[in-house]
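Now for a chain:

_____
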Amino acid sequence: MGTWRSSTQSSRVMVSILGLLAITAYALCAALQILVWNPLSAVPGATLNEIHEGLARRNESISLAAVVTWSSIGSVLGALVVLLTARRVISRMRTVAILQLLILVLGAPMYFFASFSPGMALADAFFISGGDYSPWGRLLYLVSGTALTGMLIVMIFRGKSGVHSARA
């Protein structure tokens, strides 16, 4: 019995760590999208240095600290889930999965908030729209939407192996 509980506990911790890795990859891609990929796509042919010089000429900037702060919130929450799972505060696999998926779902609004000011800075400095020019922003929204679908599936199906009744 002790080995089964230990195995189940290590499985929960592993799922929480995998969730953290997915959340961290999402955050890294979001930060790169805001700081590198979108500016380069929004101002084709310009280098990042030229883009930042153009921003400065118009008294605009993209705050690295703000983007990193917004982008890292999910990773901090994901690490908290890992810690609580390892300490057995969270003891159900289903709860671990729902929490990590929820953090990925919330990545979309966090990305929107983190990218809004840099997008407007680019718009004001280069007379363009403030939206995403790089396709990677849409991929982030797709990942969050997929996580929402996964979370709903985990919430609806409670891990029952079938719908057969126990009637004799």
Summary: The longest helix spans residues 2-42. The radius of gyration is 21 Å. Residues 162-168 have pLDDT under 50 and may be disordered.
